[in-house]
Structure formats: structure tokens, C-alpha cells
Amino acid sequence: MADENALSLDRRRLLETAALAASAAVMPRILGIPRAFAQAGSTMVVAAPATPQSLDCVFDVSLGTFEAIGALYDGLLGFDKIPDANVPVALREDIAFHPEKPGGVNMHGKLAESWEIDPSGRRAVFKLRQGVKSSWGNELTAEDVKWTWDRSFALGALGAFYTTVSGLTRPDDVRVEDKYTVSFNTDSPNPLLLKIHTNLYTPVYDSKKCKEVGGSDDPWARKFIENNGAGFGPYALQQLVRGQQAVFKARADYYGGKPAIDTVIFKEVPTSASRVQLLRGGAVDIAQYLQPLEVVNLRGAPNTVVETVPASFMIWVELNAKIEPFDKVDVRRAMNYAFPQAQVMKAVFQGLADPLRGCMPNIYPGYVDGLYTYDYNLDKAKELLAKAGLGGGFKTTLAYNAGDPVQEPIAIIYQTALRQVGVELELKKVPAGSFYNAVTERKQPMIFYVDSPWCPDPGYSLTLYFASKSYVNYSNYANAEVDKLLADTAATADDKARLEMTKKAQEIIMSEAPWTFVAYPNYTMARKANLKGWTYYTSNNIRFQDFSRT
Amino acid sequence: MTVTGSTIPAVSRGAGSFAFFRAVLRNHPSFALGYAIVLLVVLLATFAPWVAPFPPEFADADVFLQPPGWPHLLGTDATGMDVLSRMIWAPRIDLSIAVLGTLLSALVGSVLGALVGYYQSVRGLARLAAGFVMRAADVLQAFPVFVFAIALVAVFGQSLQSIVLAIAFVNAPIYLRLMRNQAMSIRTMRYVEAAWLAGLPDARIIVRHVVPNAMAPVLAQLSVNIGWSILLTASLSFIGAGVKAPTPEWGSMIAMGYQNIITGQWWSSIFPGLALAVTVFGFALVGSSIEVLSDPARRRRLSGRLTAARGAA
To answer: Which of A187, A245, A526, B267 is spaced 20 to 30 A from A420 at the CA atom?
Structure first.
């Protein structure tokens, strides 16, 4: 018996020893876990609706691309930051008009160390920081800035949009003055000479690397830039698996100092309900683009914080001025009187939006309040329809995006209201993939649109949507006086005169109602409580370098 | 006592067969349940405008997402439409699509099946054509039904007609095969040969002698298929390929409400889901009852059991 016991004890010891040996063999893996936990302090996981499609901002405006550009690239200038009025722990850009500052803007140099603007408003000179390295180790020079704008001229697309709004007409307008000095020269005074360089989509490329990889086949390195970072920004791209995740690594040699968050994992989680659950469960640090009800529901959840701030987003319904009966101003006005804006704010946006009572973001300088006169009034709508000869009502269609969960309920509520004034609205669901096409075709009598003009400037915002020749004017709105006012606004740097002109333009546009005015949805940040430093940008993206942990 | 087939005609037609039907239902409560469900759904669909407490497409945004209570017995959805009223109206769409689609497929499938079955054993061109029809059906059936239906709706555009067509299309091969098998065996029957020898034209033989004798399995399939088609209609609407919003329809109601389940407003999705499940279940029960009643052998056995039970009582 005793022997047997001894034997069994021995056997147990043997097993223990074997187990120890086995665990020693896998020890590196086990050790890997605590190390990963330790790293969690400097790793941030973002649950996003989509990973970037292309990393080339001349061609791509998808959601994930915005975040990637903000991490991989830097521009010449940035707005100074101020605390948000409603959410003091959050910062936002100081986009207000500052007459005492050059160009009227409160900004700091990013890749530019100092800058000068000519009193004529036709020339800006930027002195670059010296010793700034790209993620590929090349030093920033004036050549890089020049190459970047040459690329925009050569490739067109969004690049053409930026050269146009900056008043640049030919590549030679961007000149290398010396190794670290570059100048922008325009034919007529341009109000955006400085502001345009704060834009997310005017980054500077490492031209040396781009030329090296592009060679003669691909002189503008389109293939490379589509899949890699080639900038002077705070992060370098470590991995991009489209549809799954993108991984960004902080750069120790970033001129502004290494960002606090070392690794950012940008994960694609297509449904918002899953993003909420991941945040609740602590698996991710930030859950982007949640539904209003989910945001309300997330308030008070342990270890998470939800902040929501007024943003530059706008949502509206394009009333196609080239399709009957929306060619008649009175019909367009009636469509606004019949829109139950307050109900939509409550039922659909859960209070996480402001009613759209203007034709440009209400947080931008130059916005004129008090021009909206279309408070819900069905009698007034009927009266206007009768005046337009449509007292018996009419039938039309409203197209909405299947991928945007707020549009269908808004459409249904609108349909119920319109039925009461005799307008029979048929709802047309357009798949998310082809929705943008449906908008740009301009063949729908009514179609939803969500957008945000990135440059906080009244001339820029209004020109986008209401200049008759603008590509983004999807409602086919055309008014000669508005066109003239906007053209004049773009050709003067006199801020007072510009504000007068944009005010007048807003008055005309609001009274002619080219849209059904819906809402200014807020920007919402849902994050772990220990994540600090969030800044709201008018480009409505997050920049990883802003964050740190407490 | 042995009960032979000859005792069935004794339970005569008219009141007699009704008595038999009642006896069957009493003996098979599940059949009774099936008929009750189907009857209820049909009645609701018919009298929806009088039964539903609210208009089905009226969005009163002031009362969005109200939990079940008064006056919205089953609550309201995200736009303030009454869930109960929409549920009552929904079978109008779901049933009409399903019934129309199924009937169409049964009609097309049966006619083709009868022809193919009748001519398959003949030589020549007819046989070739029959073979071609069967292979075409094989190709149709090789596609996953749902994907095929989505593709059809995508091609024909989003409308009621296209959904009906899609349902008819994906179901037709089932009836084709059922009818063909029947027709092939019936064709070898003596009475068909006799008719042929008597000089009756083929069309006449098919219509008068083949089809009537081959209908039983087709009828049984119909009910099951209607339930299944309701499910397909709802699935198409759920993914957005079905009816247009805000048409009251169970699948689209589930789709519109499912986002809210996670935030706690379960009622706008769960109730239409239950209605859908119960209805499909009802049609399945009816289908299984028809299967029993239309099969002479099973019907005879059942009738025997019932008589025996009555005798024992």
C-alpha cells in the first residue's frame, strides 16, 4: 500500500514536473499576454464602419480614408484649438473670424514654421520647418510642397477642386523660393490663401519617396499612395487589410514629438449595434458613427463616455429645380412648410441634432441666423401649393439611402405630413453602393443628401451647393444674382465685404428654398472613460495623435 | 371488422363529408389549429380596414417607440406608426403575394409537368423538348432559392409584380417535377391507353384523364408552399428587396425594428416576427392535413380509425 502511495505520489510529481516543463515551453506565448496588456496603455482600438478604401485623398472620400489621412499626413497649417462650449473636456478648432490676425484666422504652423500674406491678397509665402522627416526618413523641403500641388494639377479629381478654390490656375502658381520656402500666387485676391492649408485634404507628400517608387510608369505614385502612407504625419501605416483592419504605428521621429498612443488598430465593424456592444464590453476604445438611440442608450454605461457636439454635418433633401413641380419656388417653399422639423428632431435624432435653419453650417463664421421662415404649417403649405396651381396636390418620389438608418424614418414621417396637403410621396430606397451615383445623376425629383463643407468659410460653403456651375450643386439650383455674389466673394480678400455678400446670398437662397431643410446632426464621440484629448474637427474625423490615456 | 374502401362512399357527400371533416379535426387538433390560424389570417387581411385601430401608414412622430399599452396595444415603431394596425394589414400584402406567386407557379409548373411527363416516353422532337425543359428546371433549382429571388427582383425592379414573379419562378420546378412523375405513371394506365386507342387527341387525354388524376400531391404542396412563400416575401423585404417602405409587411416591419432591439425597444420587431412564424406554421399544418386527406390510402386508414373509435364509444 505504502509503496503504491509512494508510486502514485511520484506519479503526481512526475505529472507536475511535466506540466511545468510544458508550460515553460509555451512560456514566451504566455508572457506575451501580460506584455500585450501592458501595451494596452498605448494601444487604441477603434471600431469603425469601414476601413479605408484608398489612401489617396485626390480620389477617395470614404469614411476610413479621413482618419488615415489625418494620421499619415500633415499639412502646412492648423487651426488653434479651444475648449468646446458645451463639452469642455473636448476641444475644437477656433474657426471664428479674427480680424486682428493675418488672413483673419487663428492658426498655428504645422509643417510651416512661419507664413506671410501679401496685402494684395494674391500671394502667401510659407517658411517650412527644417529637419522634418517623413515616415520614410526623407527631409521636408519646398520641393515636396510643389510636387504635391503639381500632382493635384496633373490628376484632377478632388485635386482640381482644391486648386480651383485656392485660386491657383497653373502649376507655376506654386513656386519654390528656396530649399525651405514656398509661395502660392494667384491672379486675383483669394480669401482662402491660408485657410485652405488647414484642410485635411491638402497634405504634403514625401516627393522623394514617391518619385522613387513611382518611376517613369507612374510618375505621381498613384499605386503607392493608394496603399501606403507617404507623408510627414505622426503615424506610419503598418498594415492595411481592407474590410478587416488598418494598423497605424506612432513615429518616434515625428517633428511634433511621438504621439502618446503607440499603436492604433482601426477595425471594420459594419453594424453600429456591434460597435456599441464592443465598446460596452471594453473590447474597443472608440465606437464611431452610432445611431441616435444607441447614443442615448449608451449614456451612463460603466467605463464609457459619450460626448456630442455641434458639427459641420448637414442633412437635407434636394428639391430638383429642373424637375416639375420643383421648378416653382412656391412649391419648394410649401415642401418646407410641410416638413415636421421639430418632430423629426425628437423622434429620429433624439435631440442629437439641431434643426437645419440655414444653408451652411451654423457653427461657421458668416452664418446668418433668422432667415428660416418655414416652421411647420400645413395651411400655409396648402395655400402656396394652390398659388402654384397645384391645389389638388401632386405625386412625386423621394429617394433615400438604404445605408443611412435615419433617412427612412424621416422619409416616412415626411410622407405622412405631405399626404395631408395632397402630396403623394413614393419612397424609393437606393442601395448604399449606388446612392452617390443617384445623387450625382440629378435625375431624382427629391433625394436626401448629407454633407459637410470642410473649409469653415461662408464663401466656400455656399459656392459648393448653390453656384450654378458647382459640381456639388445637386439640386440644380440656379440664380444669376447668387452666382454673381459668390463669384465676387471668391475674388476678394476683403473680409467685411465678403461677409456682406455671403449674407445677401444666404437671404436669397433661404427665400428660394432649393432644399427641404432637415438637420445639423451632431458629431458624437463614444469612447472609454480613460481616453483623453478628443478634438472635434470640421472635417468630422478623429486624429489619433490627439488621444492619451489617464 | 375490416373497413374497406367501399365504406367511404357510404359516408356520403354533402353533410356526410362535413361530418367526416369534423371528426378528423376532433381527432387531429393540430389540423384544427392550422385551419383556425389560416382562417384568422385571411379574415384579418379581408377586414383590416375595419379591424385595425389606426391607419397603417400614418406616422405620428409624437408617439414614436411607445411600449405596448393604451391606445397602441402593441406599441409604436420608430416613426410612430401603430404596430398592431400594421400587423393586421400586413397579411394583405404577404398573403396576396404568396398566394398569387404560388398559384402562378403551380399553374405553369403543372401544365409543363403534365406535358413533359406525357411526352417523355415518346420518341422524337417532343422527347427532346421534354428533356430540355427538365434540364432547364435542373439549372433553376441549382441556384440557391433566395439568391435567385434577389437577382430576379433586382432585374425586374422593386415592385409587387416582381416579387410575385420571383416566387413563381423559384417554385415552378417543384410543381413541374411533381406533375411529371404523376403524369409518367398515369400515362401507362390502361384507361389512358384506351382513350388513345379510341382516337382522342393528346390534349384531350391530358386535360381529361391525366391532370385530374395527378392533382392530389400538387394540392398538398400548395399549402406548404404558400407558407414558405410568405417567408420568402418577408425575407426579401427584410433585406430591402421586397415591398416599398412604409407598406405594412411583416418582413419589412422586422427590418425596420431590429435596430431598436439592442436599445430595448423589442416590440416593433418581435410582434411581426411572431405573426410571421405563427402564420407559416398554420399553413404547414393545413398542408399536412391535405396531404393525409388527399392520399386515398391514408384517408382510408384514417377513416377506418375514426369509425373504429366511434364504434368503441
So the answer is: B267
